[in-house]
Structures are given as structure tokens and as C-alpha cells.
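Lab channel / #folding
Pinned by the channel admin:
"Please post every new chain as: sequence first, then the C-alpha cells as a reply. Keep commentary short and put observations after the output so the thread stays searchable."

First post following the new format, from NK:
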Amino acid sequence: MSHNHSWMKIERTIKQDFQYYYIICEICHKVRYPAVQLQKLIDYAKEELFFFIEDWVLLLLHIGKRYIAGITHYQKMLFLIFMEFIPKYDIPSENPGFYPYKYGPYSDRIDAAVDILINAKLITAKGRKSSNKELFFITYDGTEKSEKLKKKLSVEQQTALYEFRVRWDQTTTNGLMKYVYGRYPKSTIKSKILKKVFPDRTLVRKRG
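Reply from TO:
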């Protein structure tokens, strides 16, 4: 549904001296970075730790040494990266602007990042688009770039990211959805598959 955005300024500080800001819509949670702020972050990230959405898309794909099946699985793993992994390890990152959508939490910025990386030939996609048959692979150039990004993480963070990837690789998309829906019920308010994920909807209410 279309609406007039209600933008709110969010200020952030990294290492007590580097400051930047972005704006987020209080209604739909879309995020925008003014051009000057975005350039500041691009320059900062050349030498310091700051990851953009494209960086996380690459890292998550590379760290597991195999493909990811389905954009829904990819999106939900990235959702958990931003909701659980990044806060735990305090990694400065771009806000992807997740909002409730028909399949749960969704970020159009992530979809855009995937397209950017495919066009740049850093990742490839094979199979029927937007289905669980669509497989995402990292290319040689993507691996080279991802290795440079990975070196910005501590050994502990790299190990934790690998374990994160392994955990959710071994979980079906339905199992991943159940975890996300159960832990973050506010993200399911516009879901069209809530009954499929949780046939007993009282389970969701109790967890809410």
C-alpha cells in the first residue's frame, strides 16, 4: 500500500569518533542514506570495519563453501545475520530496512544487492528464479573479494559465521521460517503463509 513516508533521522557513531546518519521511514521501515553520508561510509570502509549489504550477501555465500538454495532461504538467513549475528559481535553495518511482507521479514535492498552482485559477476544464479530451485553460487572474482572482507573479521567472528551458515544450511526453509516466525512474530503481520508455517496459530500468539 502506498503512503507518504515519515522519515526519521538515525545517528550512529563508530569507535567514538566516526559519525554518520541515515533516515528511516517510521511507517514502512525503508532506509535511505543521503549521498554525502554514503560516500563517507564508502571511504571509511576502505580501511576500517564497516560492511554494506553486498558484503554480507557475499560473505554468507562464500563462508559455507557451497550454494544457497532459494532467495527466501537467503533472505531469512540474512535477516538473522542482522538481527542476531551483527548485534552479538558488534559489527558496524548498513541497515537493510527489513519490513513485514507476504513471506515474513523482507528487505528490497537485499534483492537489489543480489542483482548488483550478479551483474558484477561476483555471484551467479541458476534455476527457476524466485523459487527454492534457484541456486546461488559465488564466482572466482566474488571469492577474491569475499576473502578480503573476511580478513576484516576476527578469527572468532569468522568461525561463528561459518557455524551460523552450517546451522542454517542443515535446516529446511520451512524450519528456518518457523524459527524466524516464532522468534520475531511482529515480522509476520502481513504474511500470506502464516498458516502454512504454523498450522496452529495459537503457537504464534503465545510467543508474541
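NK: DSSP finds nine helices and eight strands in the chain.
TO: also worth noting, The two ends are 25 Å apart (CA to CA).
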